[in-house]
Amino acid sequence: MAEGRKAKPDHLGHVIFITAAAAMGGFLFGYDSSVINGAVEAIRHRYDVGSAGLAQVIAIALIGCAIGAAVAGRIADRIGRIRVMQIAALLFTVSAVGSALPFAIWDLALWRVIGGFGIGMASVIGPAYIAEVAPPAYRGRLGSFQQAAIVIGIAVSQLVNWGILNLADGDQRGEIAGLEAWQWMLGVMVVPAVLYGLLSFAIPESPRFLISVGRHDKAKEVLSEVEGQAVDLDLRVNEIELAMRSEHKSTFKDLLGGKAGFLPIVWIGIGLSVFQQLVGINVAFYYSSTLWQSVGIDPSSSFFYSFTTSIINILGTVIAMLFVDRIGRRPLALIGSAGMAIALALEAWAFAAKTAGGTLPATEGTVALIAAHFFVLFFALSWGVVVWVFLGEMFPNKIRAAALGVAAAAQWIANWAITATFPSLSEWNLSGTYVIYMIFALLSIPFVLKFVKETKGKALEEMG
Predict the structure, then answer these.
(1) What is the pLDDT of residue 241?
(2) SS3 for 238-298, per residue?
């Protein structure tokens, strides 16, 4: 009896290690997508590039993300989940080295695309692998590792950027061991990228993939590792084989049929994805250092505020994980929309007081900083998590995979649109830009009330 009690924690600890290793892809996803925040102004000065050109260099990684996300699933079905993780780790490593040592603006953009491809692959393969290896009783909690890893990756990238800036005496172009500070910021990602690659050699292949290629004995070995010795392995293998045979491979054609081309439920999924981005959340992660410097805050302080915003992002994500199953998805989304709209309105008001010298009066500056943190908090405790929960639950079984793919693609495109337009919009009118984001936050409220149905407590088979 004592042995049985001891075996369970050991076995669960192994599963947690496997899940955490796979979630390193999420950490790199968060790290790579936000690390550029610290290099924006230095890249602008180094290459003497205007706002429109700079925006394309920042946003072009998202094109790679979209492609990587689109192909990852098919590649994983052919060569396995672990191989895809290793490819993503290699792409992250190459991108980090290339981004740190660019010859010109064009090859920096190329390295960004390669890194984006890795992000896209990691964003798909991490959750899929975790779902396939996690014991059913722990799947929900272990699945949340991916989102937690993403927000921790964002925070760590901002902390590292801040530390490097301080080593360079507050100058993004200050030299450290022969390289400029911003080059170190982009190059440091080599460390977690290599760690991700090494960890991928220490975790087993997905039992589902092993069964799909006829390696039943190896699949049983992995199942005994992750589900325990007490499981009837032959029965579990038969269950997985039966489920795989009965699965409907959804295609793009399955999504068609509504008056506007797609089925109504697909348009709702696209709407959720697009609203999640159009409130301007990624401006906070790609451009916040630049934003604070543009209103008179010194670089070191601006980097510190980017880090504190990332900590707030983690706090909000934890709140969402605690409450998404208690109060439901729709109430959380509505609370978030209202909170974001108020915070964005306050930011727009504060930035309207920007002086000709490019600074904010003390009161408006304080309001802008507090409102920015509240905006990220309300996003993280609502739309940051809830949209992914909705997308995983709202579609009928027969179209789920294809519909998720279309909704995710819409999200990357909306993310690209916001990222690519912010520098030019902020030059035009920073306050007006935040009014636009506030309008989208307000419009998301009637959208949720009218079109989005609660999925809390419903079986996936009930979605129709």
Answers:
(1) 80
(2) HHHHHHHHHCCCCCHHHHEEECCEECHHHHHHHHHHHHHHHCCHHHHHHCHHHHHHHCCCC
Q: For residue 201, give every residue at least 6 positions away whose Cβ sits within 8 Å of its Cβ, in sequence order, or none.
A: 86
Burial class (CB in 10 A: 0-12, 13-18, 19+), 410: buried
Would you tell me which CATH number, out of the four given (3.30.2010.10, 3.30.413.10, 1.20.1250.20, 2.60.40.10), belongs to the domain 1-203?
1.20.1250.20
Would you list the domain boundaries of the chain?
1-203, 252-464
Q: What six digits make up the tokens of 437? A: 């984001």
Strands 261-262, 179-180: pairing kind: unpaired
- What is the C-alpha separation between 137 and 131, in angstroms, rounded? 11
Q: Tell me whether domains 1-203 and 252-464 share a fold.
A: yes
Residue 92 · residue 115 · CB < 8 Å: yes
Please check whether residue 164 is in contact with residue 185, taking contact to mean a CB–CB distance below 8 angstroms.
yes
Q: What is the pTM of this model?
A: 0.81
Task: Give the integer Cα–Cα distance in Å for 293 and 16.
Answer: 41
56-98 tens-digit pLDDT: 888 888 888 888 887 888 888 889 889 999 999 999 999 999 9
How far apart are alpha carbons 395 and 265 in whole angstroms?
Answer: 7
pLDDT in tens, 97-137: 999 999 999 999 999 999 999 988 888 888 888 878 877 66
239: left (phi over 0), alpha (psi -120 to 50) or beta: alpha
d(CA 2, CA 10): 13
Cβ–Cβ contacts within 10 Å for residue 168, how many? 22
Query: For 159-185, what is each residue's pLDDT tens digit?
Result: 999 999 999 988 888 989 999 999 999
* Fold held by 252-464: Growth Hormone; Chain: A; (1.20.1250)
Which residues on neighbouring strands pair with residue 262, listed in sequence order?
256
